[in-house]
Structure formats: C-alpha cells, structure tokens
From TrEMBL:
It comes from Reinekea forsetii. Keywords: Signal. The keyword Signal applies. InterPro entries: Put_conjugal_transfer. This is Sulfur carrier protein ThiS. Residues 1-19 form the signal peptide. It holds the Pfam family TraF_2. It comes from the Bacteria.
Length: 477
C-alpha cells in the first residue's frame, strides 16, 4: 500500500483498555470512550505496542497527562446507615438525659442500648455486604511516549506512568454493648455523659487495600513483510512487542470501627495519623517484576483492526503480609489490628498472604474513518474477564464517535458509550473535547440511568458506580 494512503488512515489506531500494561484506570481520551485511540486526540501510542509504527509521520509527546477516578458500590446503603445510626445514637442520648431527670428508668436506657446494639450490628453487616469505595489517580511521565524511528529496524518507544489506587470496605464482626444497670446508675449519679462507644465490643474493621505502581515501558514495532493475501487485499500489517518494568507496593491494613467511631466524636487524630503513615508508606519498599505484551494492527483503506495480547508471561505481584505472630507485637494497637486480621482470615473474609497475578488477556478493536478522518467510529471489546489489583472483575465493551475537524482552531468532540459485560445494568457515558490541537479534557460517568434521578435517596445513591475526569496537554509533530 502506498505511503500517501497510509498516512491519513494511520491516525486511527488500536488500543487496549488501560494505559500502559497494568494501570487499571483509563487516562486521556480513553476516559471518554475506553480502549479506542486516535493520533489526533493524543492517546495514540500508549496502548497497543504496534501503534507507534502504524502512526506513520504522526508523533505526539505529553506535557501533562493525569486522570482521577472513583468507583463505588452501595452508596445508597451507606447513606441509609449513617442516617439510621445518627438517629439511634441521638435517641439513646435523649433517653439517658431523661433518666438523669427522672423521666426514664434504667430499663428504658438498657432497652435503648439493646436497640442500638441490634441496629449497629445489622447496619455494619449491611455495609460489609454491599459497600466499597475505590479512588485512584494515574499520571503519565511528561515528554512520553518518546518514539524513535530507525528505518528498517522499526520504531522504538519509551514511556512511563504512575498509578495510585486504594479500595476501602467494611469487615463485619459480632457487635455487643458491654454495659449493665449499675454502670448506668453510677454514670448518672456522677453527672457523667454516657458514651455508647466506650462499651462497644467488636472486631468490625475498615479494610483498606492500597496499590502504588510505577511502570517503565520499552516497545518495538515494525511493519510486517507483505504476503500474498495481504498484498491482494491491500492490507498493511504492523506488529509490536513491549516489555514493562513494574515497580510496585501492594499493601493492606485493618482499622477498628470502634476507634474510627471514637475519632468521629472526639476529633482525635491518632488513628488518622496511622492511616496517613500507611498510605505514604506505599511510596517505599518497592518490589519489581516484568510484563510482556504483544500487538498487531491490520489496516485496509479507512478501516483498522487492532489485537492486543497482555501479560504473556503472567507476572505475579505480591501484597505485604497481614497478621502473623501477633503475640510478639509490642504496640497494643498494632497487636489488636493483628488479632483482628487473624480473626477475619479464620472466617474466610480476607487472605493474610495474597498476590495478584496479571493473567494473559486480549482486547480487539476496530475503527473506521470518514471524510479524511474528520469523523471516526470505533468499538472495542475485552474477549474475557479481567481482575484489577484488588480482585474486582470486569469485561468491557466500548463504542466511540469522534468528530475531528482538520482546522486546529475548531474544537474536537468525543462521545463514548460502554458496558461492563459482567454487570450490564449500569451504562458508561463519556464526553471529551480537544481544544487548539493540544488541550484535551475528558469525563466519564457510570450509572444505572433509570435510577440516577430517583426520588428515593438510597436508590439514587446505588445507581452511581463510577466517575472519572482527565486533563492532558500534548504536542503533535
């Protein structure tokens, strides 16, 4: 195929769902329409390793490329629990005040505490079954990807990125309030405020998993020699390989619900300091591994087919070990956390020794351009399910429409639509704009659209599944 035909077609390229090799968040225009790439919108070359050689004379480098995302489940239940617990705590506080003035009996106070105990236990169990929140951010290394074209030896590409992500959920253990009538009488006689938190006995905990990942990629791509079939059909084939050095820190920690509740009432910062220390500790003590990817693009006139194979060597990333030899820990709080971890491991809620294997996966996408690449449509699909760093599964189907005027001063519009084939009820909607051929802004929301504007706050909260925003500045040459 003649190079003059290849150049405008090569502006549309195949990609996979996530930037680089294991960053489980979309970045740049991929926030809007998922695993679809186009040189005019600046995400070309970050995904399928065959793309740099496919792009012909078009190259881009990133000055700024950052994205933020939050994924969640059970927001409606979370709002309901907060409302219920606030009402019950206020109710028992009022009953205790009435007891002090003689308007309520000890039995009334104990009855209120029993109701609070039952409500607390039911609500924490509800959160453990339905709620999690997973915020994250990804930043690409400035001035990458950097492509070096070496003629007959192919095209070499270097890039780098950083992913920071966490997943917070609740672990439920039996909840009881250890208080008797005499303690209630003594508290009232001494004119002391009765704090229900002082009497909670529970192992229920906040479970926080954290990932800090740095990727350094080197990729090679080259046009494949023509064979009889491709020559007759006018197909241009390009293949690419990529090796990624992964520096990572995966850790997990437990924080007692009782201590979190206490800090919410007395504004103590001790536990929050511990959480902050654990989070910042994710930027040290890195482990290393390597992942290998391969890709191919098949291009015929205005149509391009991309196939990307990920993690061919199936690398494994290990989490820090949680729990173990708790009796030897001297710090009382750390020892308590350790015993809590051992308890939840014994009932199968968590695993003390855990690893994340990057299993091989494949993404296929196809795209077609119209009107000298001023309009492009594309679609992509994961052929089988994937696990993210925290074990949550997905299998994406994405469709995209790009309106791309050739004049630099006209805004370029991107529209995206997607579904997770493992959870098809929510819908992914994306919107992106490119301004002056260098600034790109992309947004995405995933929600059950029929419930998003419901009058019921619980239904409305449960409808929202994720939201993303991205900003990137890049130069084409």
């Amino acid at each position: 195929m003649k190079r003059s035909i290849l150049i405008p077609i090569s502006l549309l390229c195949a990609t996979v769902a996530w930037a680089d090799t294991i960053n489980y968040l979309n970045s740049g225009p991929a926030v809007t329409f998922g695993p679809i790439s186009n040189a005019k919108v600046g995400s070309s070359g970050r995904f399928n390793p065959a793309v740099p050689a496919t792009n012909g004379d078009v190259s881009r480098i990133s000055i700024l490329d950052l994205s933020a995302n939050v994924q969640l489940r059970g927001l409606g239940e979370f709002n309901t629990v907060i409302e219920n617990m606030t009402d019950k705590v206020d109710s028992i506080a009022t009953t205790f005040e009435d007891f002090g003035t003689g308007d309520a009996s000890v039995g009334d106070v104990l009855s209120g505490i029993n109701t609070l105990e039952s409500t607390f236990d039911d609500n924490i169990e509800l959160l453990a079954d339905s709620f999690y929140i997973k915020p994250g951010a990804i930043v690409s290394l400035p001035l990458t990807p950097w492509n070096f074209k070496s003629g007959s030896f192919g095209t070499f590409s270097l890039s780098g990125s950083s992913l920071t992500q966490a997943r917070a959920s609740i672990l439920h253990g039996p909840i009881a309030f250890d208080i008797d009538a005499q303690q209630i009488i003594d508290s009232s006689a001494d004119d002391e405020e009765l704090d229900p938190i002082d009497f909670i006995r529970t192992t229920s905990s906040l479970y926080l998993k954290q990932a800090q990942v740095f990727n350094a990629d080197i990729a090679w791509s080259r046009e494949l020699p023509a064979i009889d079939f491709t020559s007759r059909q006018g197909i241009n084939a390009v293949a690419g390989l990529r090796a990624t050095l992964i520096a990572y820190n995966l850790q997990k920690n437990l924080y007692p619900i009782k201590e979190l509740a206490r800090q919410a009432t007395d504004d103590s910062g001790v536990l929050m300091d511990d959480i902050t220390d654990d989070i910042t500790g994710g930027f040290s003590d890195f482990n290393y591994n390597v992942s290998l990817d391969a890709g191919i693009t098949l291009q015929r006139q205005e149509t391009l087919l991309g196939i990307t194979l990920y993690h061919l060597n199936s690398p494994e990333l290990d989490y820090d070990v949680l729990g173990g030899n708790c009796a030897s820990i001297t710090d009382a709080n750390d020892q308590l956390d350790c015993f809590h971890a051992e308890f939840f491991a014994s009932i199968g809620d968590i695993t003390l020794q855990e690893s994340h294997r990057l299993t091989p996966s494949m993404t296929v996408d196809i795209s077609h351009t119209f009107l000298d690449n001023s309009v492009a449509v594309a679609g992509a699909i994961d052929l089988w399910r994937k696990n993210d760093l925290f074990g949550d599964q997905s299998q994406q189907l994405n469709l995209g429409l790009m309106l791309q005027p050739t004049q630099w001063y006209w805004p370029r519009l991107r529209l995206g639509y997607g579904k997770d084939l493992l959870d098809p009820e929510p819908t992914q909607l994306g919107l992106g704009l490119s301004l002056f051929n260098f600034l790109q802004i992309d947004t995405q929301i995933t929600a059950v659209l029929a419930d998003l504007f419901s009058d019921d706050l619980s239904t409305q909260g449960n409808s929202l599944r994720s939201a993303s925003a991205s900003a990137s500045i890049n130069l084409a040459f």
